[in-house]
C-alpha cells in the first residue's frame, strides 16, 4: 500500500542500520547502547528522542536480564509504538472546518491543498479554497490550477492585497455556499520572519472571529527530505503560529522518515497527513500503527 511504499527508503535505511548494530555486537553492553543511540540520531529521530529511546531500552533490558542483541529490534518497535500512540486520533473533523495551511515555500503546501480539496470533493464534501498568499501572484495562479483540477471554488484578490481580507472573504463565501471545508493557503515567506508571523497572527484572529461553529485547524506543512531542519521549522511555528497539526510531505523521496517520531515525541504535535508522491491521490491520513508496522514488518 501507499504508506508502505512511501516509507520504503526510510525503512531500508533505518532497519538496515539498526540491524547492522545488532549484528556487530555479541552482547548488550554500554558500547552497544552508545552505538545504537548514534545510529538512531543518524536516522533523523532527533537527539532528545534517541536518548530517551535508549534509556527506555536500558531499563527494559535490565528488567528482563536479556543479553542477546537480537531482542532489541522487537523492543525498539514496542517503544516507538508506545511513543507514537495517540498521535493519530483526530484527522479532519466531520464538522465544517476552516483549515489554515502554513509552511515555508517549496515544502508542498499548494500540492497538499490541491490533494485535500480533490479527496474531500470525491467524498462528496463541498470545498472552497482561499488564495491568501498574495505575496506572489504566481502562488494564486498555481492554487487556481489545483482548484480547477479538483472542481472546487477559489477566492482570490489582487497581488499585494491583505491576506487576512482574502481569508475573511473565503470564510464568508464558504458559509454562504454551505462549504464543509474552507482551506486557505498562506505565504511561505515575507520580507522577514516577524512580518510573516505577524501576518499569520492577524489571519488567526480573523478565523477566530468569523469561523463561528466551524472547527479550526492550523496545519504546518513540512518537507520530510529536510530532516531535522523540518523539525526546527515545526518548533518555530509551534511557538508563534499555534499550529494544531503537521502534514509531512515527500516521504516517498527520503530516508529521513524518522522525523515523524521526533515531531511526535519532542513537539507533541500530531501528524495528520503524509504526502507520498506528487499525484492527487498521494496524500494519506497518518495512522501511527500503520507507520510503525510499515517500518518494522
Ligand atoms: P509550495 O511552495 O509549498 O506550495 O510547494 P508546491 O506545492 O509547489 O510543491 C513543491 C514541489 O514538491 C512540487 O514539485 C510538488 O510536486 C512536490 N511535492 C509536493 N508534495 C510531494 C510529495 O508528497 N511527494 C513528492 N515526491 N513530491 C511532492
Provide a descriptive summary of the structure in words:
- It is an enzyme of class 3 (hydrolase).
- It is a peripheral membrane protein.
- It catalyses: GTP + H2O = GDP + phosphate + H(+).
- This protein has 297 residues and is α/β, with parallel strands linked by helices.
- The protein has twelve helices and eight strands.
- An eight-stranded mixed sheet has the order 3-2-4-1-5-6-7-8, with helices on both faces.
- β5, α10 and β6 form a beta-alpha-beta unit.
- It is elongated, with a radius of gyration of 21 Å.
- The protein starts with a helix and ends with a helix.
- Bound molecules: guanosine-5'-diphosphate.
- The site of guanosine-5'-diphosphate has 18 residues, from α6.
Bound molecules: guanosine-5'-diphosphate
Terminal residue distance: 13 Å
Low-confidence stretches: none
Strand order of the largest sheet: 3-2-4-1-5-6-7-8
Strand-pairing-aware structural class:
alpha/beta
Q: Give the amount of beta strand, in percent.
A: 5-15%
GO molecular function, one term: GTP binding
Domain SRP54-type proteins GTP-binding: 270-283
Catalytic activity: GTP + H2O = GDP + phosphate + H(+)
Subcellular location: Cell membrane; Cytoplasm
Amino acid at each position: 500500500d501507499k504508506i508502505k511504499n512511501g516509507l520504503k527508503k526510510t525503512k531500508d535505511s533505518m532497519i538496515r542500520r539498526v540491524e547492522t548494530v545488532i549484528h556487530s555486537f555479541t552482547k548488550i553492553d554500554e558500547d552497544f547502547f552508545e552505538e545504537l543511540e548514534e545510529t538512531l540520531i543518524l536516522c533523523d529521530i532527533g537527539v532528545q528522542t534517541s536518548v530517551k529511546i535508549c534509556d527506555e531500552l536500558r531499563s527494559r533490558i535490565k528488567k528482563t536480564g536479556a543479553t542477546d542483541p537480537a531482542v532489541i529490534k522487537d523492543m525498539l518497535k514496542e517503544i516507538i509504538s508506545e511513543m507514537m500512540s495517540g498521535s493519530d486520533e483526530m484527522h479532519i473533523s466531520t464538522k465544517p472546518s476552516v483549515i489554515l495551511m502554513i509552511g515555508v515555500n517549496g515544502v508542498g503546501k499548494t500540492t497538499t491543498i490541491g490533494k485535500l480539496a480533490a479527496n474531500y470533493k470525491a467524498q462528496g464534501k463541498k470545498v472552497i479554497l482561499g488564495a491568501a498568499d498574495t505575496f506572489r501572484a504566481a502562488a494564486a495562479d498555481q492554487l487556481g490550477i489545483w482548484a480547477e483540477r479538483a472542481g472546487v471554488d477559489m477566492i482570490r484578490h489582487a497581488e499585494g492585497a491583505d491576506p487576512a481580507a482574502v481569508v475573511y472573504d473565503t470564510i464568508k463565501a464558504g458559509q454562504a455556499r454551505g462549504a464543509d471545508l474552507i482551506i486557505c493557503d498562506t505565504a511561505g515567506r515575507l520580507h522577514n520572519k516577524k512580518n510573516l508571523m505577524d501576518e499569520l497572527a492577524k489571519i488567526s484572529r480573523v478565523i477566530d472571529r468569523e469561523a463561528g461553529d466551524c472547527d479550526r485547524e492550523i496545519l504546518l506543512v513540512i518537507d520530510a527530505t529536510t530532516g531535522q531542519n523540518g523539525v526546527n521549522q515545526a518548533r518555530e511555528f509551534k511557538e508563534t503560529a499555534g499550529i494544531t497539526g503537521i502534514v509531512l510531505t515527500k516521504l516517498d523521496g527520503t530516508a529521513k522518515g524518522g522525523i515523524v517520531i521526533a515531531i511526535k515525541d519532542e513537539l507533541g504535535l500530531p501528524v495528520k497527513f503524509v504526502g507520498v508522491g506528487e499525484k492527487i491521490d498521494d496524500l494519506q491520513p497518518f495512522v501511527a500503527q500503520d507507520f510503525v508496522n510499515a517500518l518494522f514488518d
